[in-house]
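Field reference: sequence -> structure
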Amino acid sequence: MLYESPLVVVNPSSGSVITAVSQDTVVSAQNKIEACHKSFTDSKKSLSKARRINILEGVHRRLLDEQKELAELVAMESGKPLQDAIVESERAAYGVQLAIAHLMTEGSNTFPVNTMLSSENHRMDVHHFPIGPVIAVSAFNHPLNLVTHQIVSAFAAGCPCLIKPAVETPLSCIRLVELFRQEDIPDGWVDYLITEDNELAESVVTDPRFAFFSFIGSARVGWYLRSKLPPGTRCALEHGGVAPAIVDGNCDLEKTVASLVKGAFYHAGQVCVSTQRIFVRQHCVDNFIDAFAEHVEELRVGDALDMQTQVGPLIRRNEVERMHCWIKEAVQSGGQLVCGGQTTGYQHYEPTVIINAAENSLVNSQEIFGPVCSITSFSDLDSVVSRLNSRQVAFHSAVFSHDQRVINQLYEQLHTGCLMVNEHTAFRHDGMIFAGHKQSGLGAGGIANSIHHMQIAKLKITQY
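Structure field:
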């Protein structure tokens, strides 16, 4: 299918049109793939490490210069509250800084192999080389920082990159690519693909000229696309989960509640590691629910561009209806609605708290990706671990406790990519390992890890 009509980008806070951008056709997509491929195979277009560092330093300066404008763009197209969009803009610049630091310090490894008579007088050197052209597919919820991680990691690794941003939020990606182009990079090194056509997108992702596929989005789409990749194409997948938090009885209640409210309702819960389930010790669950609900009801819901807004809109109107259906199902399963449960504004949904929903209810078993948090009491920690480990998702988890035995048990036994201790599940530093296990993902994110994934180790053995 050819998209001759432009892609209309809408402000989810109001429904107003921000702008319209041209969509790629089969022809333009093929041209971009070929340009990306030639950037890697044509020695005249190669970029030395020193040149890549120089370009990244220029992009870093430009990101710092445009932080305010980029934050406003993020808030406008994604509905992320401006106070959080400012942080995202800062993180994007920091991510580039991390890539520069990695390039400054990486080097080859030399190992003696004269430990056996048969290998005397030999030396082994290991260098890392770019794997090849990268195709990336990104998500709407961090429209600037996610594409920064994907593009910058590929560029630092020495790999040209073609990236498809989410159709709801292409503008931040387009601007980042423009900042790279202002550094006079060769054509094809960094480019974007804009399309609503899933068939076209799949044909691009599965093109054998790409050596690596970077995906951030739903597990259904990610695992499907992985199954279609040509033999030899490597990939990294970042999906989601239910991000549980376990509240032990000896934690600081006020600090715990404040942290978990942020973790559950940051960006209206539209984060792959948003705190969705909270397990609380039976003897303190009533006090926790009262304090948690009080904090949640104080959250300010509104226009993302309002600096006072703490919870913005959902990205699409049909997501509002889905929230309503899932909450209705949870209540019918025996759950009790503590607060929220109603639409408000254009496509906003009230921050919602449910208690005692059935274990197999959607809000407890599936990633809700919205401003909904489910609370369950427990008395036996082993049963909580068993319950969570039975799920096919495992990304971030949290424990709020000062009991090292509890912390160690969860760290050793819980299936999770990361255990936060006295911190909510949505916390992230851009240099840390960011990895989902089971159906939550494949490989590990974080700037250094992503660079490593996009390179291959090449061995040289020298006899002397």
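Note: Residues 82-105 form the longest helix (24 residues).
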